[in-house]
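One-letter codes give the sequence; the integers encode the fold. A sample entry reads:
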Amino acid sequence: MNERYSRQILFSPIGKTGQAKLLKSRVLIVGGGALGAAHAETLARAGVGFLRVVDRDFVEFSNLQRQTLYSEADADEKLPKAIAARNRLAAINSEIEVEAVVADINHSNVENFIESCDLILDGTDNFQTRYLVNDACVKHRKIWIYGAAVSSYGVTMTIIPNETPCLRCIFETMPGAGSAPTCDTAGVIQPIISTISAAQTTEALKVLTGNFDSLHKSLLQIDVWREDRRKIKLGKPNPDCETCGRRNFEFLDAANDFSAVLCGRDAVQIVPPKPASLDLKMLAEKLKNLGSVKQNEYLVRLIVGELELTVFQDARAIIRGTDDIAAARSVYAKFVGV
């Protein structure tokens, strides 16, 4: 074992034994945005032997304020985030393996992505993907670490199937479409990204080195602007939970995926997984500074560059300007938020 990890080995909870475990570990990072990029860099520097980074998006200039793996050159070239992450991580630590996957995580591939990994880290930006990951991880008894950050606030929780509550135990139903703030509607500052990623990756190091007694065992909530930090202790899994209690993995069911390319229209329709009723006036207000917005009693229309997003009162949306379902889902997650 070389000098690279010497200071980490001096930290007694890890030591030589823990470092050897890290080098043999395999981690899936879901999403290569702000949190995912921070996770990947931390774990690469720590010597985790295999990292699989899955992301559907490409680097934009608006990412550079907080997505620390990426450069102006990546944004100029519109490199897929997974590829840009792999390139940067290779320069940070050439001794580990980084697998870049440019894909939309969905019911058809999530189980394959988690299958060979020891741990899954959440770096995504929407609840639909998190519920999907939660289903897959509970089904296959994989530990995963939930994390989210927007504005100056963030939250994280380590989920050990059959031992701790799962995501669905804590959040029984996902937020309604348009009800939750996103980074594109409420903004985000980089310190909360660093803080939540630090909490998630610290938990990851504990899990991978076998230090389970040191896990914080809570729903950790942090607001860096207000200097507010709270820990809500976790109890036992809810026996009535749809996912871990009843083992009803509905998000893995293809029948619940209602995204579709609209033939001949260069457009994709997105339908939320649960019935919803939007406050169109409130949504229009949220979007008004992001592009050209028009609203009537039936819909809100946002035009940003070459893309046109039309959102109806039932939270169904049509994204015109692409026939790529993954790209359309990304637009929906950014501007509507589920």
